[in-house]
């Protein structure tokens, strides 16, 4: 048995060493296949890892579950449970009210080491506070306070111990630690010592009614993220606290979030399927051609007594040797490529993306690549194993079973006809080459057409009404918008006007006003919001209880807090035009008289019972003045973004009328367009103003939104093109291998037809026509299939959303001359190599 194994190993090694050209092509194919698998695995693992971290940062904690109201005795019971791997505790003191921090919620808290670490807020320089006069802050809070990040700095914070009173107190601390801030979290943390927190609470174990001072928080982490809610429920049951303590699962670990992460990785999974297909096409073709050219050798082995299984082992042995060379190289190159692509595909300002080094990347890539090689070897090994010695002697480059037909003609065979006939001598090989080439070109056309159909104006329509939008610092504040805030100062507007390039502007003011809901509006609400609609709303909105409480007030016809806007210019024109006008007619001149108001309804079409707001023609009294509802608008994001989560019936007045009613209010938002040539100058001016005079002011530009969209979609776009290019390269490699093998295997045949009169020029022309035939058929199939894919599939995929379908085959037009050049060049180079041997030498050669 050992001798048989030794003989098979020797035969495999000698056959392997003899097929140097085949080995080179096969190793390149395996290397490319493995490289793409590794790159896709790296990107998939890295994207999942980084997206999870992004959601964890947005949630503000890495803990699996947490509670925002609990007693110390209850904490002691829960943390002693064996299922709890780690836990953290915090005591909330209050929120900072320094004017410099307007628009940014900063919570004063005591935190244990593990709690601070789970909140991404553990000091990287210094430590957590230990004395009552110490504090730890992030760099963004320090920057807004105008304090340089250095240990020992003095920090003074104002906060309210009693939320029912406007009185605040100030405390001065010494900075004992700091870390890099993160804007994506809902609030920044100001860590104080436990002594300070307990002293501020006055010894109370929990907050008083309507207060937050003394609130205990607890976060728990388990061994894994499976069944978090079930584990939490079991712990509460074991501790006898069911119904007494309520935990909330971290949204980053929810099924919905995991589905979103999976959806982001779908392009990677599709890419793996395509890579497998492309790799199979070329590796299979390489071994198919190799077996066909060495079929006489395998026939001789059969004569000497070799079995089917032994011959198959020789084929698979060669595949194993090629894999041992190609797969490790592909793993290294693929991971290096993935390492470079991860920062490009995962663009975020919140943290630096990390490249995963999970063992699954290398194990999975190697396994997939090896399976591709093994599957590719199955049919060639079967062909070599079942051939008989007699069949081996008669085997030619033509496909098995093909029957030659006698061709008659008065003028004899033309070079084109001979080239065409040679192309189909081995239909399987030709078919594989055509499929390999066509697949890459069609995929390239698909991805390009889909990306070309993206309409940036449609994307920006719901997000931006101007080149620049300035938001007051308190617009997104957790404590609510402050109409008296003066982040957008007149001095800034004067600077912009002095530039002389501002082309159009728009103002937005806002004020919350308590108004009674009319009977008609209450009826519209009851009709529109059916129980099914409310149940659906409750299923996905975590703020539904808050919304529902104020909604019930409105339906009952009670007094409701309305957000009254004052708008003009760009924002008013956008809000009252096109699809945003749901009912009524907007007359700018009549609206400017100050006798009318616009009602904002839902982002939906009117139902049979009307829209859930005031009806057109109704009269509403605001600050003692009567207005008539002129029209109903759909909510425009640049106008309503930053509003309260409670149910609201927003109203829009003309800006000058609004300032007459509320003269003390300042701008909430300001919109303006500038000349294209001054975009960079204006952007620089705003950035400098934000950093020096209005730190909390938010700046949004159209270009920023475009860049944000490109960053979000870069993953699928880049991978789509990358996979297309690699598959196209695999196709070209397949074509090169087929042409080279076809010419080398027919060198005696060419010598014979040259000996009877065919010139070198005629032979070169025939081979060139054969290569151009490959290119011609590939292009024909590519144009036909791409037209169908783009015209049907891409059209259907871009029917909705931010797309305007564009039929384009630009990648094919670009690749056509390149493919034709390759189709002409490769046969010419092969022929030159063939010419190095004389006709006599080729006739004497043994196949």
Automatic annotation (TrEMBL):
Query: Which GO terms fall under molecular function for this chain's record?
Result: transmembrane transporter activity
Topology with respect to the bilayer: Multi-pass membrane protein
Q: What is this protein called?
A: ABC transporter permease
Task: Report the transmembrane regions from the record.
Answer: 268-298, 319-337, 357-379, 431-449, 718-744, 771-797, 809-834
Q: Which organism is it from?
A: Evtepia gabavorous
Q: Which UniProt keywords apply?
A: Cell membrane, Membrane, Transmembrane, Transmembrane helix
Cross-referenced InterPro entries, in alphabetical order?
ABC3_permease_C, Macrolide_Exporter_MacB
Record family assignment: Belongs to the ABC-4 integral membrane protein family.
Q: Which GO terms describe its cellular component?
A: plasma membrane
Q: Where does the record place it?
A: Cell membrane
ABC3 transporter permease C-terminal domain sequence ranges: 270-389, 722-837
The organism's place on the tree of life at top rank: Bacteria
